[in-house]
Amino acid sequence: VQELTARYRLSNLQPNFGLAFNLASKEYPSKSTLFATLPLPVSIALPVHLHATWILAPDRRSIRNDISVQGNEVPLDSQYNRHILQHFIPTLYLQTLAYINEHYPHLMQFAWPQGGKNEGEVMVATALNQQLTRVPDLVLRTISDKRIAPKDALVHLKDTPDSVKKLLTCLSLPSYVAEPHFDTSFFENWDNLRGDSPAMVSQILRNSVRDVEGLFGGHSPALTMEDLQSIVQYLLDAKQSLIGIPLLPLEDGRVVTFQANKHSSTPKIFICDRERVGKLFGSHQVLNSEINSDTGIWWLMSGHLNLDYDPNTASIRGALENAKPSVAPQPQRKVTADQLHWARELWAFMADNNIGCDHVTDLPLVPTRNGDLTLSLDHARDGKVWISSNGDESSITEVFLHLQIPVVDLQLDRIPPLRGWRHTSQAIHSVLTILQQFNPISTIHKRVPLDDWARFATKFRSWVQDRTLDSLNPELLDILNNLPLFDGWQGCLPCRFVPCFKLVMLPIRVNIPKIAHFFPPNMIVTSKTSDLEAILRRTAPTKLLSFPTFFSHLNIQRSELPENLRASLRTIIKLVIEHHKGHYSSPLIPDEDGIPRSPNELYDHRIESNVLQFKGRRDLFVHSEFRDLINGMIPLGIRRKFDPKDLQAFIETVDKDANNGQDVMERAIWVWRLINDSPLTIGGIDYRIIRGKRFIPRRRTQYSPDPTLSQYVPTLEMVVSPDEVHLDEHAPLLWTLRAPFDLEPSATLKRIYPEIGRPTAEHVVLHLKNLSTHVATHELQSETLFREIRHIYEWLKMNQQDFQQYLDLISPHPVWLNVDSMESPWTWCAADQLVFDLPRDTGRSFRAQLFLCDYRDLLIAAGARRRRYATIDQHRPETSYSAKSLAGWRELRRKELFFDIWFKPEGSVIGAHRTLLAALIPHFAQAFGVDSGKRLTTGSVQYPLPDATSAFAVRAVLDYVYTGAFSCPKPGKHEDVPLVLKQLLDLLKLAHLWGISDFEAPTVALISELRLVDEDNCDLGTQDHKQGRYHKPLTLIWTVLQQAKTCGSTTLAQYCISTKELNGWI
What we know:
It is built from 43 helices and 36 strands. It has a four-stranded mixed beta sheet, with helices on one face. A four-stranded mixed beta sheet has the order 20-19-22-21. A three-stranded parallel beta sheet has the order 8-7-9, with no helix packed on it. Strand 2 and strand 3 form a beta hairpin. Helix 40 packs parallel to helix 42 and helix 42 runs antiparallel to helix 43 (1050-1062). It starts with a helix and ends with a helix.
């Protein structure tokens, strides 16, 4: 009081204070009063009445609590009242509360201030709250109903959820005040008051792990999962770390401590797919199913706590290690059927969640087909486990199951790291690596059913290729070499499942049972296969037999061959024939007694000389059942005894017997076929020696170009000499002399003897002579014969040099068909009767016709001639006419107008104009008296002509008068030549008579051009008759030379004399 009065200068006051609370209250008082000895009309919102020595306001109805009007300073009166409210009243209030809490604790809920409406009320409540943490008054009660001072208590805060209060209450904390009855929001941030804040709760939980874990156990847990989730949410909202807090609920009912997710080895609690994970790893590793893990807080916590929302291989390993029982690292372990099913479910879970296996490779998790075993992935990959990747490998799998090899089936068990991991070469490597543990490997097939092993061998052999074996090391190749995969034959006994190292592979696929008898008894052989060849090439190349080594291993005894082995030996002989080169020196071919002998001990039975020479020697000839193979046996060394010398002797024998009338056809056919099949045999014989020998069979039907000509085919013996046969291609040149081959010579034989069957000039000429002499005389104008003749002429033309020596042979014979075409009448002439360039036939010669012109040089070489004529210089006078005048006279002549002179030669009447004749021909000018000055008489006159004047001569003169051109007669055929010559000579005589010199030169030139002068009309004098086989009669009573002299034509006379001298006419 002294302090108060001294501070506010109230020396005359003696302040006192008082506080009253209704102990009979059953609810919070709605209204209290402020007293200054007497009640003031001032209501307060506190649960108690207050009395003090106040400084009242001037109206005596309230206390002073204002501010100075002069500024912001509070007046001393107001300061006094405030000091009471802030210091004395709170102290008294706390003492009162302590009393009530001790004696009337059930009224504590009504005794605490609940805030204030005016400034004074707020001031009291605030000061009260501020003093709570300092005073020793026991104003609070703990959950154990013990009084406690606020400074020693843990107070439940206003904003803390009930779940936390429930938790702390269940923990029975001795200082925890669950019901503080006052507004705790006033001092939530005060350090000296402990409340159930997130930080405090976290600390309490970390220090009470065992107690908290016990709250969630049993049949009636103190806290629910809903409470737990609320508490966790409360802590997380305040960003409190959950590490070390035992609020992680598990499916097995327990609650464990949250741990930091710092290491992969930290055990994880799975919050996804909890039912499936719980079955796999236990409910103790799964978040309680009552917790809604879909809420964001759990997903957020999974990042830094031991919660696994997205499992990986590391968390799977942790779960396996914490499983009950745990899965410890080991290569393999024995399991029950349930455990095997569990392993498969585990891999299915990992596959569904795309979980790898990097952290679990050393754990025995891989299920096997063996039924009681699981493996670690590391062990599955170390080469001692068979991993089946597809159904095609079932045959391999079955065998390994029989051998008690662990088998992993990738189709049955979803193991992601192994799916599709192996190709063929790895499969072979894997199988051989697994089998490496068995010893001896060569008898491993006896441990499994044979049918299963057969399927195993078939499948494994399908993998064996060059490329798949390249990666095998020597140890695995040795295993492969000892693996019983192949079938073979030992003698006549079949052997199943033989290792490669015991086999000998034949160089060809062959039916081994047929030939097995002839192999050594200790040798196991098999046919050629690509897989066995690939293995032996790397492990035992010498076991790959070549044909020479194969044949060298044959065991053929020199003893009589049983009939049941003949087919087998025949197979071997065929193989030797096909694949052996050169002579074969071991016993092979059975003789007639069935004893195998080397080929060089036997003779060819087809050679007559051999049969005759070794008659009765059954040991020297091939057995009859094998003789169809004789041609193939010859290169092996069968002795033929037929060198060129022997063949020549045989041919001479056949020829001799044929000439003596013996039937040699069979021998001829044989020797000719022999020569054709082996032409080199005859190559050493000179063709000139055998060309006349009869040893070649001819064709029974000889060549005939046309059925009508078949009667002219020569009749020859059936066995003929080379000179009596022809190749089919040369038949048109030789068919009247030779016959066709029964079997044409081979190409090789033709190269050895180019002359065989080919035409010679002599035979072609004789054939031509036969056609012209014997055939053509009966078969006139045959188209076939005409074609054959032309073919012969063409051949003679191409081979003219060879033909030259036979000119004398055919020169006098009419073998040349002198026609223009086939339709022309056929005339056969000798070569010396034919003349080229002859304008017409004469008494002694024939003009060579068009058909023979293509063979001009050939016929001249054979004796035909060529007509040559002397040449003359032609000097034709140049005559000038008036074109217009001549055109007018020609038009008058054409229309026969104004003719005034007539000529009547040979009964013809020819008109002309005297004026024109007199103007151009001096003879007529003189005859008409023009030169004497007389005038022509009028009227028509007939002018006299010499006897036998031809009409041609008169017309030719008149044509010259009217046109200035010379009319040329043209002979139409041979009979017209004398007439043309007569007409030209008549013209010369008339021209000479009328004194027209211009006609001589062109007339003589035309006689020369038309070759009208010949040996019959040039200078013969009197009538001459000449007859001959190929000449026609000719009669002349004048000669050209005589007529030339009569007409005074020196040019024509000189032409006749020169032509006569050039041709040697006498």
